[in-house]
Structure formats: C-alpha cells, structure tokens
C-alpha cells in the first residue's frame, strides 16, 4: 500500500473510532467491546487491505505512552499501600495462570510441545493495562478495587514477557534452567525498576527547566518512549522502567511544573491516550482477517481447533479465580495482624477482580512475535486472538451487570486518617490569607491591599463555615457556583458581541476567553462534585 493510502486508512480508522464511540455511549456498553466488533466488521469488508500488526512496532508505539500515562496519574500512596496485593496479582496470578494454561493446552492438544504450551500460557496470562483501564472507566467500583486492578495491569506485562522469553528459549534450545530463569527474572525486574527511577528523576529535572509549554509536553512523550527503549537497550524490563519513570514524574509534577504546563499537558495526554486506546481495540478486530489468513495458509483447521481454544480460554479464566479467591482470604486467616489492618472483604471483591482480567493488544503483539518455525505457532496465534475476543466481548460486556448484581460494598484499607476535602480547603485558605496579609502590610503597618486581605479572609471564613456545617451548606454552595457559571457565560456572550462588532481585537478575545474558560471549568467541577455527593 502506498504511503498516501496508509495515511487515508489511518484517517478512516479515526473516523470509525468517532462513530463507534458515539454508538457505545448511546448503547451504554463498554467502548472497547464496540470498537473490537467494529474492527471485526471492517475486517470482513471486501476490498479493504489486510492489516498485519508488526509486533515490535505495536509494542513500541502503544505500550510506553499508555503505561506511562497510567503510572503518571496513579496515586502513589494508594499504589504503595496496596503493593502486597498488586504483586500477588502481577507475579503470582500471572505465573499460576501460565502454569494452568500450559497444562490444559498440553492436555487438549497433546501434539503441542511443553515449551509451546507454556509460551501460550505466558502470552495470555497478564491482563492488559489498556483493556483494564478502558473497561473500568465509569464503572461503580470502590477506588481501592480500581487501584488494585490498574496497579496489577501496570506491572504484570513484565512478568508475562519474562516467562514468554524463557519458554521461547526453552523451545528453541530444547533445555530449561530453572535457576537461571529465576535469576533472569529478578535481573530484568530489579534492573527495570532502577532504570526507570533514574530516568524519571533525570527527565523531571530537565523538564522542570523548560519554560516553553509545547517543548515540555513533547519532552513528556519522549520520557515515555525513552525510558522504555533505554531499558530494553540495557537488557532490563522496559515495561517496569516506563511504569517507574511515570510514577516518579507523576509524584514530582506538583512542585516542579507550572500550572500552565499541567493544564496543557493533561489536555494533550487525554487526547493522545483516547486515540491510542481506541486504535488498539479497533486494530484487534481488524487483525482477525490477517490471523485467519495465516492459519489457512498453514493448513490449520480453525473450526476443528475451536473446542480446544474454548477449553484453554476457560482454563485461563478459571485459573484467575483459583488464584485470587484463596489469596484474598488465606493470608488474612493466617496472619491476625494483617486481618486487623485489612479485614476480610465481601466475596464480591475477589469475584469481580477475577472477572475483570481482560486481555488485549499486548498479548496479540507477543503472539505475533513468536518466531517462524516455532512448534505450535499457529495454535498459539489462533488461541491468543480467541482469548482476547472472548475476554473483551464476554467479560467486558458483563462486568457492569455483574457489579450491579453483586451489590459491591465499600472496600477500603485501614490507613492513617487524612483530612477531608473541606478541612484541606481550610488549611489552604488560611495559608493563602497569611501570605496575602504578610505581603499587604507595609513597613509602617498600613494595609496596602485591604481589599485583597478582605477577600482572602472571607474565603477562609467560608471554608470554616462550610466544614462546620456538616453538609448543611451544600445547597448554598451549589447555588453559588451556579451563579458564577451564569455570570461567566454572560461575560462570554458580551466579549463575543464586542468582538463581532469589531470593538475588541482577537488577541484580547483569546486572553479574556482563557480566563473565563478556567473560571467555568472550576465552577463546573464544583457543581459536578456536588452532584456526586448528593
């Protein structure tokens, strides 16, 4: 296909993404499932060129920015406090699933060598970060459960990729060294984390000295890809390096970057993540024809393979239940101190966590990277694609009804008490008032800016009143921000009238409009918070 044709194809896919996203919102179903189905539908359109995903390009293009963005906006304190469970899932559940899938694959397809069986298990064992984030978005889940599932998906790809490399090496060489495999795993994991931390500190130090906002945003994207590629060049885990880099830079953004940088960067990253996530799912569906074409060329009977594929997919899902449910209750039963700090959760918690393990494009890209001539490559490709489709379409579409049916209660961790939002606003308002009072008072003791002192004093008083009212002033606060929003909209209409009458320049319009935009965003955010509180 000519370069212009490739560009036209990408534009067509973006247009399809818009249509499918709108359809998903209208139907109130997960967009990921609709995008995959749309991709399958496009793959069946006669005359549409075959799309074959290059595994190296797919991993490099999609994985670093999406992992980096997820890690960047991860709440570090919650991630750290739940690290025990996250590692249980990211290492224990992945290794256990690899074992179970490998054994079941050998039982249903006895001709498949053990190395190929475990390679397949390693490919389909880690839930996908993109799929998890996309499916969980908007679901009524406790924040801690979201932290666990997204935290697991950030680091489990590293476990799956290491196990995959070990299985492929065993299949090609015909030997397996358990001790060497353990050493390699820790080398890749520890090395990736250390490389990512070092890169994160270096990148945040350099970016903090860039005053130009576009350059700063571009530097953020380079940090995502640079940490991944740099770690791979050092022969350590690029996945863990990217996640560690994102966590470090996300933690340091608040005191190193300006408000303008954060506002613009967040907007750009939201758009890029949306486009990449959407393209990932539609490309999964589009790859169906290419995978089926490979299988037909190799003489593989896809229909005869279906029962085996279903059995392997069922084993993959059952393995996650078999790991998560005991690991949820057994440590608490054996360790009273742990049980006091983190009591037994409702049974709905491990059930939903088990069912939320969707697979995605990482599994497909890794399956496509299986070397030509590797035993069982066709079975691995077919099974991986089937598992991805089943997990996104079946689990993704049924997860929300399952959550509603099980009536999930709160799932929290006993932590050091923290201030509420209203109490934090009191501290913030008092600090601002102290700074204004100090700067306003002249050497002779006279107030040079009494109106500012009065304004910030009123803010501090209102913060205390709202905190002490215990919700009684919610209606007044909502009315306040509704009036602010109405005033902002009236001001916007006036400057637009002046501009269209030729009475103000475009530069003045853009300057005043930017101020009104921030004011409206603040008011709309406050109103949405009030609506959620009610």
The percent of residues in helical segments reads: over 70%
CATH architecture of the largest domain: Up-down Bundle
Structural class: mainly alpha
Classified by CATH, the class of the largest domain is Mainly Alpha
- Could you state the order of secondary-structure elements as H and E? HHHHHHHHHHHHHHHHHHHHH
Q: How much strand content do the residues show?
A: under 5%
Strand tally is 0
What is the number of helices? 21
Work out the radius of gyration: 27 Å
Overview of this protein structure:
With about 525 residues, the protein is mostly helical. It folds into two domains: about 5-45 and about 60-405, Na+/H+ antiporter like fold, CATH 1.20.1530; about 425-534, no CATH class. Helices cover about 80% and strands about 0% of the residues. It is built from 21 helices and no strands. It is globular, with a radius of gyration of 27 Å.
